[in-house]
Amino acid sequence: MTDNPLSEQLLAEHRPVLFRYALLQMRDAELADDAVQEALLSAWQSSASFAGKAGLRTWLIGILKHKIADHWRRSTNDVIFSDINQFDSEDADTDEDAFFMRNGHWHSGPSAWNDPEAAFKQQEFWAIYETCQNNLPPKMARVFMLRELVGLEADEVCQEIGLSEANYWVVMHRARLRLRECLEIRWFNSQKQEK
């Protein structure tokens, strides 16, 4: 057996963090565990390529992102995106400039979002966020997940799913609007009423 600079024990120490990351993105414990196992095996097999330019955890999460993307790539091969433009007509009437700057960031968040750290600490928020994300149309949810949760760049998402760049931006815009509306209704408005 050859000397491996990354021991199995060292890699295993990062397993809980990697599992939480994968579970957040895949929402299935078995799939998340499989992705983590594949990532750790891949890291161990290619440990000679770890130059230490990034932290070990950062490197491992990078490998895990690719394993998760591979999973979604395999999953999306069964889905046809021919009707990607056929979302609710009411979404088409939304004025993008009213909500987003040219770089895709919000002009300003809702007033109830002034203390996001407090909201993020609450498990209830994440349960509601997950419900909101699950209520996105499946095609829209996949595009959003690949970009925002898996961390693929826009051109990678387009290539993975077979979207044009214009369709990608429309889908992302609509996903953000729907999530914002859902969170306003189900979380932030209810928080105002409790106070």
The name of the CATH superfamily of the largest domain reads Winged helix-like DNA-binding domain superfamily/Winged helix DNA-binding domain
How far is the first residue's CA from the last residue's CA?
63 Å
Strand content: under 5%
Quaternary: single chain
CATH topology of the largest domain: Arc Repressor Mutant, subunit A
Structural class: mainly alpha
Under CATH at level 1, the class of the largest domain stands as: Mainly Alpha
Query: Spans with pLDDT under 50 lasting ≥5 residues?
Result: 79-93
Gyration radius, rounded: 19 Å
How many DSSP H or I helices?
A: 10
String of helices and strands: HHHHHHHHHH
Shape label:
globular
Mean pLDDT over the full residue set: 76
Strand runs, count: 0
Largest sheet: none
Named CATH architecture of the largest domain = Orthogonal Bundle
User: How many domains, as an integer?
Assistant: 2
Pfam families: Sigma70_r2, Sigma70_r4_2
Keywords: DNA-binding, Sigma factor, Transcription, Transcription regulation
Protein name: RNA polymerase, sigma-24 subunit, ECF subfamily
Family: Belongs to the sigma-70 factor family. ECF subfamily.
